[in-house]
Amino acid sequence: MNRKDIDPDASAAAAFGQRLRSMRDERGWTQEELGARIGCTGSHVSAVETGRRTPTQRFSARCDAVFGTGDRFERQGRSVRRSAFIEGFPEYLTHEARAAEIRLFEVGVIPGLLQTSEYATTLEADAVRRRAITPEQAAERVEIVARRQATLDRTPLPLIHVVIDEGCIYRPMGTPQEMRAQFDRLLAFAEEPHTLLQVAPFAMGPRRPFSLPLYILTMPDRSLMSYAESAQHGQLERESASVVRMLTAYHQLQAEALPQAASVAMIEKLRKATL
Predict the structure, then answer these.
(1) Where is the HTH cro/C1-type domain positioned along the sequence (predicted)?
(2) Residue-number span of the structural domain to which 47 is assigned
(3) Is the peptide bond before 55 cis (omega within 30 degrees of 0)?
């Protein structure tokens, strides 16, 4: 059986997973046996151990009860849930890194997969200023942006369809020079043979089917999943009927958005304004 290594220093979730695995191993329990004691499946235990799922308050409390650890797991679980990312996103990333096709829609900011490091740093620095996250969490978010982009350089290359709200490119982030570099990044992305970049203009009005960011993945076995998030929650959806409905709406979004040539022309015009 393949056993994934866990680096407890990588994140709060990894530290939780390592402790859980260590205590399970000490008792000689399989993941299924621990799951039966906690009230979940062995696959759920596996996902928590490897950081693909965030331990809920109930899961953490049941671990304390099973292992007799007072409230250690519950306290550690709270630190995981207060980490740099909302619940559901770390699990989504494990699937994004393997997807054959990635379709995304973003509102207000350039999506992480296309951000320059300067853009990402400026974005997270503002979140620190607002005390929404800590400086350490900001650094973790910027690092994840780079790691996500690195996973795209794989064989075969994933097909990537990106639709961004017009506000993404009109919202300044950092200095004019940094915005020019970000525009260059978008234009370079549009030149790739496995990508498509479109801008959803304000003029779409009510014809724009989504109001929140959305990611739709086609996995190598052609199964579908989607990920959507609000300010506080992320939801990974694997139920085919639900994902197909969102995929249909995404195709409608692409039909209404500007073609790539017009989108590139809009970005080039904004880039010239930064000179």
Answers:
(1) 20-73
(2) 12-81
(3) no
